[in-house]
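pinned: reference chain
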Amino acid sequence: MQPLPPIDLSILIVNYKTPKLIVDCLTSIREYTQGVHYEVIVVDNDSGDNSKEIVLEAFPEVRWLEMGYNAGFARANNKGIDAARGRLILLLNSDTLLIDNVLKRCVTLLDTQPDVAAVSPMQINRAGKVHYDAHNGFNQIRKFFFVLPPTPFFDRLLEFFMPERKYDDPNQVDWLPGSFVMTRRTVIEKAGKLDPDFFMYGEDIEWGWRLWKQGRILLLRDAYYVHLEYGSSPEYQQAQMTWINRFKPQLQMSCLLWVRKSYGVGAYLVLILHYLSMVPVIFVWKMIINIRKGRGPFSELHNQKEFTRKIGSFLRFFWPTLLKKPGFYKL
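pinned: its structure tokens
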């Protein structure tokens, strides 16, 4: 009996009630991938449905792991990393589709360029357009979380305090979105696995910070994969957001945790003080607008109240975050 060839790539997919998306994703992998010996590991976050039956009926070769609870993105992927047998590891979202043999290209790149720590193609949406909300600089993300009027003055002010890092290689970035990150097992052994404190969002940025210290991070500008926008939502639509409430509370909480872990106490406190100081500003601003329009000063303040409520929700984690206490930062 011939021994099985060594596994080049372990593809890790976290499932939470998205079996049909996984089947579509794996179908695209099987259709387009050649020249790569890979395995697929699906880690289920206690979906409580028939996800396992649906996926294994279509792809019986998939290795299925159970978390036993909704562990979020980081912990589930860490379980997959522990079980992986490939020399390369790919974190891949369930709501993604391949459109060509991009896995082979990324594998070859990592095999031939040892100074590269991680690689990913560009994200496109279901309409074939590059995602407009892709942010691949650490300071770009940090600036994005300041709720300030989008004016040239504030843009220049934030750029002065948090300038963008410049690279000679146009493909080089600071970090890669967790929907597609391919790296080496040896890099993970040095950088560490994903931080289990994170439930969802921000963990890919924090992990990217540690991967970035191990070598170049490349986002291939001429390679693509489909990331279905809000793919796990039956409406395939993002919830309506306003200027002051443009972040999901869990996203905001996770990025505050990332800032604390990667940039220290000062950077974290600056963001907290910024949010607190914005509360009276947005209320007064709205009241002035109401008066100018002939309305009562206290009318239509639902956005301002929601902003205040969100601040209260992640302030529950203020002391654990400030002291960097290990935990499960889930709102």
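why pinned: The beta strands are 9-15, 38-44, 63-66, 88-92, 96-98, 116-124, 172-173, 180-184, 216-227. The radius of gyration is 21 Å.
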